[in-house]
Amino acid sequence: MKTKLMILSIVLLASLFTSCTTGEYLPLKDIANIDILGIIYATFNITGAFRYRSVINTQAYMHLLAEAQKIYSDVIDVGDITWAIGKSDAANNNYEYTAVGKAYRTKSNN
After folding, report:
1. Which DSSP symbol is given to 49?
2. In this structure, what DSSP letter does residue 82 have?
3. Does residue 51 sit in helix, strand or coil?
4. Which of 29, 54, 69, 74 would you call most buried, defined as having the most Cβ atoms within 10 angstroms of its Cβ?
5. How far is residue 35 CA from its own chain's centroid?
């Protein structure tokens, strides 16, 4: 019984830590009406005091969109965003994140 409880505790802790270090945002659902232009990568830093999922999602979107606009001149958007925490600077309470997303444009109905 003690062994089962220990294994359950380890699994719960591992899932808790994993859920705090990665995230998904803006999944692309209606892919029939969009043209995928390519995959975009970006890194950004967030101060530890502002490490809320909503802040990380917003920063990931903004940085990926800026990168996509440098590469593609069309009117575009970014979706299927996934981010993960990278290096941390404990002395300054800063955390680096890496985000990946898909740049796309909506197909015209002409």
Report:
1. G
2. E
3. coil
4. 69
5. 21
Q: Got the DSSP string for 17-45?
A: HHHHHEEEE-----GGGEEEEEEEEEEEE
Show the tokens assigned to 9.
């505790």
Which helix (H) or strand (E) element contains residue 67? helix 53-71
Task: Quote the pTM value.
Answer: 0.75
Amino acid at 53: R
**Among candidates 99, 100, 103, which has minimal Cα distance to 45?**
99
Sorted by where each begins, the domain ranges of the chain are: 23-106
